[in-house]
Structures
1.
Amino acid sequence: MAITGEKGNISIHTENIFPIIKKFLYSDHEIFLRELVSNAVDASQKIKRLSSLGEFNGELGDLKVTVTLDEAAKTITVSDQGIGMTAEEIKKYINQIAFSGATEFVEKYKDKGQDAQIIGNFGLGFYSAFMVAEKVEIITKSYQEGAEPARWVSEGTTEFEITTADKQERGTDIILHIAEDSKEFLDKFRIQSILNKYGKFLPVPIEFDGKVINETAPLWTKSPADLKDEDYLKFYKELYPMSEDPLFWIHLNVDYPFNLTGILYFPKVKNELHLHKDKIQLYSRQVFITDEVKDVVPEFLMLLHGVIDSPDIPLNVSRSFLQADANVKKINTHITKKVGDKLHELFKNDRKGFEDKFDHIGLFIKYGMITDDKFYDKAKDFCLLKNTEGQFFTFNEYREHVQANQTDKDDSVTFLYTNDPGKQDRYIQSAKKRVYDVLKLDGVLDSHFISALERKLEKTNLKRVDADTIDKLIDKGIINESVLSEDEKKSLKETFEATLNNKNLNIAVESLPVDELPVVITLPEFMRRMKEMSANGGMAMFGEMPVTYNVAINANHSLINRILKEQDETEKTRLIRQSYDLALLSQNMLSGAELTAFIHRTLDLTK
């Protein structure tokens, strides 16, 4: 049909009002280039598909997409040698906004073999151009034999013009005349950065400034059987050039009940949660969408790095945000399962290697066990506990290791732990004298992990090694004999209370081993946990409550016996202060003027 020249109005559907598309549909104006390049890729994929089906017998030629910047003319042009359009198709796909050419194409050819990666909503994507352009031209020639080239032009209103065009080759040129308020996009480096961000892995070559900027067959599209470790490490360096090599990786390749490919890397992570989040890139048929993948990937795996690509992840119409959908939940569940299976496989096949990596991967595992009960059930068989000697145990192994010596009078096993081996060394050494084992739980998530273990493990208590006197940490119902009478104990308690004069101290005289300190000060496990939760932003009411410490006077220590017999009240007070400050020092609670006074008293004792 000859093109005689035509003017008209773009057909606006009520749900897709043009000004909304132009101004508000896309939150980030740079998206225009992603959409136009994606459309050009679609057109290239379509002609390739038609050729494979025998419905196009001409030469395919070079199917690259070219982006051209003309700073003098203030234009950006996106060109392809794809399927092209007739004037009638322009009216159908461009003027009737929201009619998706890609959708119609896939529907037409869905029963003729594998889908050829058709990306998206051409009509809507095209109109993103008007966020940055005051005028847009389409010059196109359809692949159909005898098709007449056509030119479409609009200046950002509902008015358009279609005329014949001078174009010899099959394909489409989209020419954007950049508006005054969008001159930032007339910068070569700006265009380069946008193409690198969104088009780095598009399946058709993208040429800009004389060179191809993309890898058309990225690693995740290949078969794992064809790849070596060095391939995965090289790709990781491409994604994260400043990062250390990852610990290991998982190659995802699922085609039922949804399509999902990708590579997830386990980076080296210790106690820096916030530095490692939001590093997974989400693609849809090799088009970069976002690195906000919290709905696709479970929270605890947000620490992973890598790429996920799925055409089945539902996006809103601008492809900027994920939408709630059953497929998202299925993909989330599948990724969790794959990660769990991979960790279990590593544990079974190379226990020593797994232990060597555990300081890093333990963060992922504990995060998952805290936040996901199903993952806890899977991970409880390979999650490891590490003691202060550097030995690793599964939960069951550790229970067997300590239950003979660390079972209390109620038949509950007590796991002792330290969250700061340096500061709590005296308490650790005291425990070791009783042949008690002490776990090292000093990670950023371990306070929450401890609570999870207490909920899940039957007849098991976890107590910090400095939470009580050694005999009360694991109460076996054995009462130590005291060298003091009840009257002497009462006198001691009253003397200490009067001297220390602190209503937040719960003072008691106890029969402790002779090798314990003369005075032991502890913060009860319950109170300490409430204090930690308050510090972390939860249980705020406990942050306002006064902290009450337990002060145990060791009735069997020689210094306490000396205090009891001391007749000089000044000397008695000095010895009480010295023994109490020593207890504070052992808990890293002595500072300032009190620490200075303690040092002076200690020096006086040497004179």
2.
Amino acid sequence: MIASIKILLFILGLFVSLKLLALAKEENQFIYHGFAGANLLLNEIAKIHPNGLLELTNTSKRQIGRAFFPFPLQFSTSLFNNSRPFSFSTQFVFAMVPELPSLGGQGIAFTVSPSVNFTGALAAEYFGILNSKTNGLSSNHLLAVELDAVPSPDLKDINDTHVGIDVNSVISIDSAPVTNFSDEEKENKSLSLISGNMMSLWIDYDEVERLLNVTVAPITSTKPTLPLLSTSLNLSSVMLDSMYVGFSSSTGAVASSHYILGWSFNRSGQAQSLDVSKLPSLPPQRKPGRKPYLRIAVPAIAAIILLLAISGAAYIIRRKTYEELREDWEQEYGPQRFSYKDLYKATKGFADRELLGSGGFGMVYRGVLPSSNMQVAVKKVSHDSMQGTREFVAEIVSMGRLRHRNLVQLLGYCRRKGELLLVYDYMPNGSLDKLLFRNDTPILNWVRRYQILRGVASALVYLHEEWQQVVLHRDVKASNVLLDANLNGLLGDFGLAMFHDHGLTPEATNVVGTVGYLAPEVTRTGKSTSSSDVFSFGTFMLEVACGRKPVESEKPPEEVVLVDWVFECWKSGAILGTVDPRLEGNSVQEEMELVLKLGLLCTYRTPSARPSMRQAVQYLDGNATLPDLPLQGTGIGLLPVSSTEASGEHVLTIPVSSEDISSCNLSESILSGR
């Protein structure tokens, strides 16, 4: 049974071999005038145009295109007839149209191969048939005639337009520059493979003489009598029983469109001549201009101009972004002058996410200085060029020299057109009023409140008595007291501050400050003194102890004005009834009474009756005994408050003299952003 099966399989195999042999004999020759309807084996990017034009590659970089006759042809010399020689002849018409004039690549290779599967083959100089590892292997059984338009020194190419004969390798065994022998003129004429013109190529191999001839001519010429290459070659060890014939083409860093217009082949004799009139036409070519280099130069120049324009615009925008006002007289303030570029980067371009707060006089941003990695608060204030700018900056710089543990440090400034930027130490816990008056934040205990009052009082002593000049703050209130990381109170916002020498009385200029904190004499005369700061501090003390603002219109009439209400409660013996209920009785009674009574004492309407800030510190520290308060209420508290004033907190700035630098109100709150 097994023997019968083997015999049957042998007969079947023999039958298939005979059929293939018959098919091969039938296909020993063929001719194509265009390839419309042809059953060629196409792969990679090769395609056939509707008019029958075979396009192996287009102008895409580093691509491969192949087209092979669909059946293998019989090249064996041993099957049935050992004496039969194998010779072949072929003619094809090709055209290589470069992407750029006089600059094309790579080329076309007419290929005889045992397979149409070229796994791992590379483009460019390898023509899509080999790679660096397979190049030169005798197992390739490969014959190729290459039309190469790019020199490859590694492959020993002779020039940039040549024909080469390759056996198992793309290093040609013989090659020659492309020329055409003119039978009429009896001389060779040079041809360019990448002229875009159609040319004919003939390949003839005679096994008896073991000679391979390659001939090239323009399509308008007949086949020359003298071939371009005539090379002795024994292909008996190269050819296998059956071989595929066809074309493989590739492009490299530069590219050409590679076309085959017609193809004739004969395995056992001379190939039929192609009829030029029956060939398809090439696609229309763009006519090169009178100056082809302009196709490269014009886009390059345009790109350079565009790049310069973009760079110039970026420079102008960058310069405008960081532009500052800087005058010669500011050189002496160098250490206190910040560059706008540094502040812009510190605040991430004054991004909204860095905004700490805003008010009627500007916006406050958190920032980190790039040079020192130090956190700061940057206040942007509207600012116009005005008389006294130099004096104004001088006062800012002077405030920058103030040094006290309970003063917010003014680090410096920067000026731009229409804008002034003030740089301060960053206070992570914001302003005191946010913790006093907002129910959604933790409430300060009494120990912390008392410590804050002592700190602010100490800062005012420094401003009034201990610095080289007298500094009047003129806007002491809870919203201008900032809290550091440890909840220590620091007096800030010197936007309304005024300087004068010790021993001199400042001239009346204007009414500045906040309703509810203004001393009566300031509202009458516009004259601010250290006593008016004491009055504001007294109101501030009551504000901290009672947990409410100085004027609240929504309260019952007798409680609208904080100072008057506390005084009336003191007269009735119920002063502790004014204490902030959110303290829940957790306070030292003696300290609380001291703060409430000292607050009333500081709000005497007569300036001379008020204690100095140094005396206030002594009372708070327990180093002096607080005097008794008068029972009559006419000497304590605010002047009558109008319904408009009672409607809320307002900063007043009423100019009296245009020469007064302090009339440039930078306030409502430098750091808290109120």
